[in-house]
Fold this protein.
Amino acid sequence: MELIIPRWEQSNLNSAAPMPLMKMLALGIVLLPALPAAAQSQPQTTLVPCDAFQKNPDGSWSPLRQVVIAGPNGPVTVSPGMSFWSGVAFMGIDLALRLEQQCK
């Protein structure tokens, strides 16, 4: 037994599938201009006060006082007693690398 579908129903079946795709495409076109603005709002570099850190004999860095640094997800507070090594991220920041670059 063969199922016969009238032509007008076949066209409805074919046009139903692309509708969610069209909505997603329209949404993407609307949101695309917002991407550069979002990228610009993120800090490009984390500025650190060099006088607030000391370089330790083992190559790590330690804060001498409490310091608040702008991180990728908001403010990051570091306190005396903490140590930071290059290549190790703390709250999304490789603080030791940043100190090496800024505080020579």
